[in-house]
């Protein structure tokens, strides 16, 4: 059953209707969040098909993400009945371009690749740049492949070819050389990168007017959502593809432009108007999403940005509830507040899917994920891999596991060539072979090699590969010795330094920094096990590292970055980490343009909320292993006090000044007490966490944790993270680590087992998940737990 066109037109306000039914030509819908831009765009497609008789085949709709495309497709199915939209092109810029290129590559000689070209992902691209550098005899330690790649990507996004790149320095020369070789290598591999997808289409169109015309004729109507986040190439592409019929309908909001770091330029909104003098401009002013309170807060924040057109937004949903501003004692209490609040509301009948928790950087999800796991509450993580599933986190855990258990071959295989150290698959196979012959594990072979190199059979077996293996063996044996002497964070640091891990993952790009943030997050966790040590640390990971301890349910709270939240809406939104240096991010401090972007990011977050917004911050945060006072985000100052209900304590400078948890005026359940007892069970030795209702306890916790800074913090570790020293400068060919062998299953369903703290239990299921034997065990004491067999101290009974 689907609506007829006239039915849904009646549900729109006059401006929306004007947009949906706008005459052919150029239309710009410029409107704030929640005003129905996406809805209008979707309904215009339905309107064109149903009321104007346009064939779906002649329509192109561009969305910002694949997810948005899927949702729009579903909505269209409802409006039209599935089959009726057949032939419609609906997808992202990249998807659209890949499609065009696959078609056109069938024409011989037109493009430098065949129709079955592969699309290289970020990792592949990086490896290719590295190769290009090496082939030009350029040192890839000094010239970081990722930094070079960023320059290449930027050039491609601005339609600049290697020959057109200005050469002003030696560095520029290197970029040009690498850029040229990189392109050749792509070609040799019959591959393109993400940027190429767009670039080649623009080139193709520019050089072959007949091809442009073919597509431009086909797409009578072009519609674009989130237009404010288009970059230069995308803008050119749209211009070309609409160059025959000139029917282009774009919707956007300058205030929600948050992808500057990927070359997006919100001034394209203005450019669109200038390039299309006859364009019809439509403003939507009614917000259907949020309460007036949420809108007022959003406006007070965005109004601080200069150079923007002020937009008025109103809602007839009424004032609604005030915004909750919660200042947690520390970051653990912050996560606990979120989870406790959600649990409280779930008990009152809210649905899991009503909630979203948003944060500035991916690394912030870890504490939240843990809090959800502890509470036994399902959650969804959007747009990023779960913390423990991320490559860099798994790498570091593998190093530690190997040091814990030198016979752990899975971990060894994972990291023996990470970062690349000239150990190839052949060498690893030879090592494995030598180990088998000697009846040892590979780890044991390495240790033997490190101890008495000349007697080890590995030398003979390995031939040329022996050098790098020996170097690694020496590192490895050093770590084993250090295990007894160093505490866990120091051991962690040593591994990171000696493997030169930081430059390997952090190339200076935003993604690189995010990856490094994740390593620091893990280090922070290691800090909490400073006293308990490696074994307990790994045991804890056995519990939380499983990716699906709880089934991914659609109807669960969503954890996502503010960037990933664009275009979405939720009844209840939490934005966490509203501290200076997090939001706005410390990277943006010195650049007004960046600050404006951070503000827009906050604005996007606020305006996702339909009914209730929670802003959360922490007085103390242990970003670098030891608690540090946080200053509240300056953005909070812009929200009028009468829109807020404050709760939690404040930590202002020196000694803590904490409001009582009890006078928050909150509901019948107390976050403080519950989370305090909740944590004291599982994390007994951390002092800064107790989230108590008493001033005394809080004060003492603060002074103790700040006192610990000098003894436990960076000062104690013996080197500087910002200057990793190169212990082993590997040169030569890099090779991906060989695939890890499938582990043996040690336990079987129905088996009885014993755990040191939980006692006896029954194995409900045992399976290999992500290369690990994963068990569901029902314990009499604690109920069902999911464990990783190789980490949990389980014994069969
Ligand atoms: P954003 O800028 O955040 O992407 P948007 O302008 O695209 O927002 P939509 O997502 O299209 O806004 O709409 C926001 C919400 O308001 C949706 O739930 C949508 O269904 C609803 N909505 C929009 N217009 C109307 C209307 N005329 N009547 C009822 N609900 C509406
Ligand atoms: Mg939208």
UniProtKB/TrEMBL annotation:
Q: What is its EC number?
A: 5.6.2.4
Q: List all membrane-crossing ranges.
A: none
Look up the record and report any one GO term of the cellular component aspect: DNA helicase complex
Q: Where is the UvrD-like helicase C-terminal domain?
A: 292-567
Q: Which CDD domains match?
A: DEXQc_UvrD, SF1_C_UvrD
Give residues annotated as binding ATP. 31-38
Q: Where is the composition biased (Low complexity)?
A: 672-713
Query: Which parts of this chain are annotated as the region Disordered?
Result: 654-755
Q: Identify the residues that the record assigns to the UvrD-like helicase ATP-binding domain, covering every copy.
A: 10-291
What enzyme class is recorded for this protein?
isomerase
Q: Which GO terms describe its biological process?
A: recombinational repair
Catalytic activity reads: ATP + H2O = ADP + phosphate + H(+); Couples ATP hydrolysis with the unwinding of duplex DNA by translocating in the 3'-5' direction
Q: Name one GO molecular function term.
A: DNA binding
What segments bear the compositional bias annotation Basic and acidic residues?
Answer: 743-752
Residues annotated as signal peptide: none
Could you list this entry's UniProt keywords, alphabetically sorted. ATP-binding, DNA-binding, Helicase, Hydrolase, Isomerase, Nucleotide-binding
Family classification: Belongs to the helicase family. UvrD subfamily.
Q: Which PANTHER family match?
A: ATP-DEPENDENT DNA HELICASE SRS2, UVRD / RECB / PCRA DNA HELICASE FAMILY MEMBER
The protein, known as: DNA 3'-5' helicase
| Lineage, broadest ranks | Bacteria, Bacillati, Chloroflexota, Anaerolineae, Anaerolineales
């Amino acid at each position: 059953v689907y609506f007829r066109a006239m039915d849904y037109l009646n549900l729109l306000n006059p401006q929306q209707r004007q947009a949906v039914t706008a005459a052919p030509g150029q239309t710009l819908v410029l409107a704030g969040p929640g005003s129905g831009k996406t809805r209008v765009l979707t309904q215009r497609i339905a309107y064109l098909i149903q009321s104007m008789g346009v064939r779906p085949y002649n329509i192109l709709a561009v969305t910002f993400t694949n997810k948005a495309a899927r949702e729009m497709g579903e909505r269209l199915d409802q409006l039209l009945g599935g089959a009726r939209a057949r032939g419609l092109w609906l997808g992202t810029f990249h998807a659209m371009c890949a499609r065009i290129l696959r078609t056109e590559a069938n024409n011989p000689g037109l493009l430098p690749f065949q129709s079955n070209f592969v699309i290289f992902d970020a990792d592949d691209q990086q490896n290719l740049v590295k190769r290009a550098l090496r082939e030009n005899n350029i040192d890839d330690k000094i010239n970081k492949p990722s930094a070079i790649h960023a320059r290449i990507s930027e050039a491609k996004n601005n339609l600049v070819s290697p020959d057109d790149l200005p050469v002003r320095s030696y560095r520029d020369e290197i970029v040009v050389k690498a850029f040229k070789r990189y392109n050749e290598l792509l070609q040799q591999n019959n591959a393109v990168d993400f940027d190429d997808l767009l670039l080649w289409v623009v080139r193709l169109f520019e050089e072959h007017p007949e091809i442009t015309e073919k597509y431009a004729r086909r797409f009578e109507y072009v519609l674009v959502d989130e237009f404010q986040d288009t970059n230069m190439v995308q803008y050119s592409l749209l211009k070309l593809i609409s160059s025959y019929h000139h029917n282009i309908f774009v919707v956007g909001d300058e205030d929600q432009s948050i992808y500057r770091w990927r070359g997006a330029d919100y001034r394209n909104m203005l450019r669109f108007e200038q390039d299309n003098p006859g364009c019809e401009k439509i403003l939507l002013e009614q917000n259907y999403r949020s309460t007036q309170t949420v809108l007022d807060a959003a406006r007070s924040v965005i109004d601080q940005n200069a150079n923007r057109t002020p937009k008025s937004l109103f809602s007839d949903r009424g004032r609604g509830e005030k915004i909750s501003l919660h200042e947690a004692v520390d970051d653990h209490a912050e996560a606990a507040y979120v989870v406790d609040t959600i649990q409280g509301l779930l008990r009152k009948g809210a649905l899991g899917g009503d909630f979203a928790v948003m944060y500035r950087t991916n690394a912030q999800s870890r504490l939240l994920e843990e809090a959800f796991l502890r509470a036994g509450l399902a959650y969804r993580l959007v747009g990023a891999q779960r913390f423990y599933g991320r490559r860099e986190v798994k790498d570091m855990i593998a190093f530690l596991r190997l040091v814990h258990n030198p016979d752990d071959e899975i971990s060894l295989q994972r990291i023996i060539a990470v970062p690349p150290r000239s150990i190839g698959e052949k060498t690893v196979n030879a090592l494995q072979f030598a180990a088998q012959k000697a009846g040892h594990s590979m780890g044991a072979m390495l240790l033997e090699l490190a101890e008495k190199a000349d007697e080890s059979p590995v030398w003979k077996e390995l031939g040329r590969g022996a050098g790098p293996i020996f170097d690694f063996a020496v590192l490895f044996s050093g770590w084993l010795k250090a295990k007894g002497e160093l505490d866990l964070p120091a051991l962690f640091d040593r591994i990171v330094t000696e493997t030169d891990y930081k430059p390997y993952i952090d190339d200076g790009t935003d993604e690189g920094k995010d990856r490094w943030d994740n390593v620091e997050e893990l280090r922070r966790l290691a800090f909490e096990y400073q006293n308990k040590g490696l074994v307990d640390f790994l045991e804890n990971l056995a519990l939380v590292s499983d990716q699906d301890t709880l089934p991914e349910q659609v109807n669960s709270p969503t954890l996502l970055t503010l960037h990933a939240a664009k275009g979405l809406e939720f009844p209840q939104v939490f934005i966490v980490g509203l501290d200076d240096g997090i939001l706005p991010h410390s990277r943006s401090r010195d650049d007004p343009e960046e600050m404006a972007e951070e503000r827009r990011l906050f604005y996007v977050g606020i305006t996702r909320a339909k009914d209730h917004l929670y802003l959360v911050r922490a007085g103390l945060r242990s970003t670098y292993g030891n608690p540090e006072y946080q200053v509240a985000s300056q953005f909070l100052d812009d929200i009028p006090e009468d829109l807020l209900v404050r709760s939690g304590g404040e930590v202002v400078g020196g000694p803590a000044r904490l409001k009582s948890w009890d006078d928050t005026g909150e509901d019948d359940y107390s976050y403080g007490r519950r989370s305090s007892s909740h944590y004291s069970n599982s994390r007994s030795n951390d002092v800064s966490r107790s989230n108590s209702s008493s001033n005394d306890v809080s004060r003492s916790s603060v002074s103790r944790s700040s006192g610990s800074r000098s003894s436990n913090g960076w000062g104690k570790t013996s080197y500087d993270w910002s200057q990793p020293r190169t212990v082993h400068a590997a040169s030569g060919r890099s090779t991906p680590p060989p695939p890890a062998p499938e582990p043996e299953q040690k336990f079987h369903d129905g088996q009885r087992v014993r755990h040191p703290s939980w006692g006896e239990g029954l194995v409900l299921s045992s399976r290999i998940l992500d290369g690990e034997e994963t068990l569901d065990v029902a314990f009499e004491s604690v109920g069902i737990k999911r464990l990783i067999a190789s980490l949990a101290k389980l014994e069969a009974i």
